[in-house]
Design a protein that fits this description.
This protein has helices at about 10-15, 20-25; strands spanning about 45-50, 55, 60, 70, 80-85, 90-95, 105-110, 120, 125-130. With about 130 residues, it is of the alpha+beta class. It has one domain (about 10-134): Metal Binding Protein, Guanine Nucleotide Exchange Factor, Chain A (Beta Complex). It is globular, with a radius of gyration of 14 Å.
Length: about 130
């Protein structure tokens, strides 16, 4: 189980850019094909921009054609929590950081093998740590 990180809204606003705050703390979505990681192929680990928890390994990233970084599984079990999201008249599965509760994106059942899942994430919620700098 992930260690929980708690900050006030004021502390999050000081730490994050306005876009990062909107996406991670207000469950926003960046426009497709605009985030810095949607087409990145660099090797490394994607961490939560809010708390630094490792979330996804670049070896699980794939081009979904959606314009957002997509992964077929989290780096470790228990790092990403899934919640039912009924916003905008739809029922989807929301992905959140298990440590700080940051909204990351959504999970869909149209991904590649071996999981069949597509973790469709917002670049604004992620921080890529290159493999050679870990």
């Amino acid at each position: 189980m992930a260690e929980k990180v708690a900050k006030t809204e004021s502390e999050w606003k000081q730490k994050l850019t306005p876009e990062q705050y909107h996406v991670t703390r207000e469950a926003g979505t960046e426009p497709a094909f605009t985030g810095k990681y949607w087409k990145t192929k660099d090797a490394g680990t994607y961490h939560c921009v809010c708390c630094g928890q490792p979330l996804f390994d670049s070896s699980t990233k794939f081009d979904s054609g959606t314009g957002w970084p997509s992964f077929f599984k989290p780096a470790d079990e228990g790092k990403v929590e899934e919640h039912k999201d009924k916003s905008y008249g739809m029922v989807r599965t929301e992905a959140r950081c298990a440590s700080c509760g940051a909204h990351l994106g959504h999970v869909f059942e149209d991904g590649p093998a071996p999981t069949g899942l597509r973790y469709c994430m917002n670049s604004a919620a992620l921080d890529l740590k290159p493999k050679d700098k870990q």
